[in-house]
Amino acid sequence: MKFELGRCLLQERLDEHGVTREELSRSLQYKPERLIDYMENKRIMPLKVAISIADTIGCPISELYELQDVR
Predict the structure, then answer these.
(1) Which InterPro entries does this entry report, sorted A to Z (predicted)?
(2) For residues 68 and 2, is the Cβ–Cβ distance under 8 A?
(3) β-strands 65-70, 2-8: how paired?
């Protein structure tokens, strides 16, 4: 099955897990501005970044974006 990425759900996942942007950026040593770019859909997370973020906040990588079924 083929999917396209929809809206970034990072802010929702952070809220669910009680993690702030600042905490995430500090723990992964990413600039907060870069995380904001992902959240505002200005950039798509590279796979390595998505894996690191999902692992750090404790969610499946597939829950970082809305996935839209493409047929």
Answers:
(1) Cro/C1-type_HTH, Lambda_DNA-bd_dom_sf
(2) no
(3) antiparallel
Q: Could you report the per-residue pLDDT of 48-69, keeping only the tens digit for each?
A: 999 999 999 999 999 999 999 8
Structure tokens at 70: 């493409």
Domains and CATH numbers, the chain: 2-70 (1.10.260.40)
Cα separation, 40 vs 23, in Å, equals 18
How crowded is residue 45: how many other Cβ atoms within 10 Å of its Cβ? 21
In one-letter notation, the amino acid at residue 35 is L
Q: What is the pTM of this model?
A: 0.89
